[in-house]
C-alpha cells in the first residue's frame, strides 16, 4: 500500500515538465511590434497621402440617437476636406467643408452654419460627439495621437485606445482592402461609453 504514494510522487516532476512544455509551445501570440520596419514603412506611405476620397456606410448608435447614412469624404490637403452624409434615400443629412480657421456646415434643412471648430459644431447641431480630426486619421489606418495601439500579422493597425479629455475611445479594425496600395481600412468600429460608430468603406481613390 505504501508503493502507490511513492509512484505518485515520482510522477509529479514528469507532470510539471509536461505542463511547462505546453506553456512554452503554446504561448499567447502577440501582435507585430510598432517598431518593426514593415509598420514604419507602411505608416510613412499612408502619412504621405495628402489627397484622397472614399465613400461607404456610416452608423452612429447611442442611447439618445441613431443615425444610418451614406458618407463621402474628400481630402484636398491635411487641413482641407469635405464630408457629406446622405440618407438611404439620397437626401443630404449634413455637408461639412473645412479649411484652416473656417468650417461651413449645411444641415438637412438647408441651413448654413459657419464657425472654426468642426467637432464642436457637429456636436451642437447633431448631438453626435465625434472626434473628427482623429477619425480622419483612423480611417486611413494610422493611430494619430493615440499612443496605445497594436498591429495585426500583416503589420497593419488592429486596434487602438485614445483618450480625449475624460473620454476614452476604442477603435477596432475589422478588415482592410489588400488590393489598395498601400492597404487601407475597409471597416472599423469606434466605441466610447454608450456611443458606437461603424464605418464601412466601399472604395478608396488616392493621389
TrEMBL record:
SUPFAM superfamilies: Prokaryotic lipoproteins and lipoprotein localization factors
Main localization, broad class: membrane
GO terms classed as biological process: lipoprotein localization to outer membrane; protein transport
Gene Ontology terms: cellular component: cell outer membrane
Record membrane topology: Lipid-anchor
Keyword Secreted appears in the UniProt entry: no
InterPro entries referenced in this protein's UniProt entry, alphabetically: LolA/LolB/LppX, OM_lipoprot_LolB
Subcellular location: Cell outer membrane
Keywords for the protein's UniProt record, in alphabetical order: Cell outer membrane, Chaperone, Lipoprotein, Membrane, Palmitate, Protein transport, Signal, Transport
Transmembrane segments: none
Leader sequence residues: 1-25
Record-stated family: Belongs to the LolB family.
Assembly behavior: Monomer.
NCBIfam families: lolB
Function: Plays a critical role in the incorporation of lipoproteins in the outer membrane after they are released by the LolA protein.
Entry protein name: Outer-membrane lipoprotein LolB
Species of provenance: Serratia sp. (strain ATCC 39006) (Prodigiosinella confusarubida)
Lineage: Bacteria, Pseudomonadati, Pseudomonadota, Gammaproteobacteria, Enterobacterales
